[in-house]
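Team,

Forwarding the record for the chain on the shared tracking sheet. I've put the sequence and predicted structure together so nobody has to dig through attachments.
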Amino acid sequence: MKFFIPTKKLFKAFLVAILLLLILNILSIFLAINHDQNDSMSSYIIRLFDFNQEANIPSFFSTLQFLTASLLLLIIAFFKKSNGKKHLGWLGISLLFFLLMLDEAVSIHEFLIAYFQEKYHNSLLFYYISLLVFGLILAGTALIYIPFFNHLNKKLLIGMLSSMGIFLLGAIIFESIGNNVFDTYGLSFGYRLIYTVEETLEMLGLAIFINILNWYIGVKMQKISIVLTV
């Protein structure tokens, strides 16, 4: 038995999934604010769908997005290599997304931040140090990749940069704001609103990134389908 899943339908599927997860996250926030400690069902829903939790369904979905992006980038890299074109740039980005997928799956950077915060008794110092290191790595990578970006299709370049901008708006700007709000006010409604926007932007940015990769694959390699054989 064979199942054909056209990749061009992934974008709509991701958007629907993001909307559903957003609604369920809002429900979990409502339950958390009005939470009865003895209500096990409310606790279970919060654990499953709250964007601020780790190793739950939204986290799994983001992991799936990173993995999808990594695989699509790998497909493009192999296509470029098979046609005798430069492919290492694509391979490098694929590896980056694979590492981000691992981080999302096992919460590496959250664990390190929590560990050093506890060790040095400073709630924000290590976070800002890690943010600085991440910024330097990002800036260095951008400089290295300037020749790569200069040779990209214009629509592909705009789509990639736009999606990255949306993702980083959530991952850096809103996460920084959220950490400051949490450090001052704790688990307030404002903090819940900020991390909701943060995670939504990250998922939306990844969905757009995957969509533009699908478009590029469709242009260069025609129709790509995932075939599952039983």
